[in-house]
Amino acid sequence: MAAFVKAINAKIRSNPTVSYFCSTHFWGPVSNFGIPMAAVVDAQKSPELISGHMTLALCIYSATFMRYSLAIAPKNYLLFMCHFINEGSQLTQGYRYLNWHHWGGKEKAAAAAAAK
Amino acid sequence: MPPTTTMFRAARPIFQQTSRAAFRSQFARTSGRRFQSTTAGSEGPSAQQQKTWFKRMWDSPIGFKTVHFWAPVMKWALVIAGIGDFARPADKLSVTQNAALTATGAIWTRWCFVITPQNYLLAAVNFFLGCVGVAQLTRIAIYNASQKKVAAPAEKEA
């Protein structure tokens, strides 16, 4: 069994493209893409679902990891893109949250619904 | 008379011991270093002890001034925000966001043990992030189940 695994691993590592797609450098950032995807899906829904604290924490987190992904060796541009997109998504959600709760968005929506 | 090579070999311990002892005593008379720089030699061991833990962390390539230190620390903010969200009512929670946080926490916990060097602090923060995500998803599931229970008897009555 161990020899079988070792043989497969040797085959994977011999091809640089396959090796990359079977590596943590690829799948770690891919799993992180779930966060901006969740934010994009939630942007279509009501702003009531947005957690202000979590959105702020994710903004700071993505900014930090944009820097981290370029500071490590080797640089991970996929992780950088993931957090760059997440920064945009979280800032959008943050704007929707602030607009809803602090800048009159909820009242405007209520008034528009009442007018209908 | 045994051959001279054998005699030399037999006498080796005597010679080696004295030469080693002589070398060591001469070595000890100096500061104990093979090579001496001008500043280190004069200051000696006290300079090392004066560099405190904080100073070493400040100057280290993975210390307080670098992102390598602060990136894992930042991730705790997500865990704390998630714990703060336990107070949010279950109908205001986002399924997709908590599922994404659970997935990323689980995968990065595993990766922290397979990289070199293993980063236990990062593994811990990702583990707790996964736990927070699972807790929130459970709260959402329980709420949805209770909503169905409320809706079903109401439909039966209607």
What are the key terms here?
heterodimer; A: 116 residues; mainly alpha; 7 helices; elongated; B: mainly alpha
Architecture overview:
The complex is a heterodimer of chains A (116) and B (158). Chain A is built from 7 helices and no strands. Chain A is mostly helical. In chain A, helix 4 packs parallel to helix 6 (77-101). Chain B is 77% helix and 0% strand. Chain B starts with a helix and ends with a helix. The relative contact order of chain B is 0.07. Classes of the chains: A mainly alpha (116), B mainly alpha (158). The A-B interface holds A 24, 27-28, 31-32, 34-35, 37-39, 41-42, 45, 48-51, 53-54, 56-58, 60-61, 64-65, 67-68, 71-72 and B 66-68, 70-71, 74-75, 77-78, 80-82, 84-85, 88, 92-94, 96-97, 99-101, 103-104, 107-108, 111, 114-115.
**What are the low-pLDDT stretches of chain A, counting only 5+ consecutive residues below 50?**
none
Summarize the main sheet of chain A: none
What is the terminal-to-terminal distance of chain B? Answer: 120 Å
Radius of gyration of chain B, Cα only, in angstroms?
Answer: 33 Å
Low-confidence stretches of chain B: 40-46
User: Strand portion of chain B, in percent?
Assistant: under 5%
**Multimeric status of the protein:** heterodimer
The sequence of SSEs of chain A as H and E is: HHHHHHH
Structural class of chain B: mainly alpha
How much strand content do the residues of chain A show?
under 5%
Q: How many strands of chain A?
A: 0
Shape of chain A: elongated
Q: How many helix segments of chain A?
A: 7
Helix coverage percent of residues of chain A? over 70%
What is the arithmetic mean of pLDDT of chain A? 90
Question: What is the general shape of chain B?
Answer: elongated
Largest two-chain interface = A-B, 30 and 30 residues
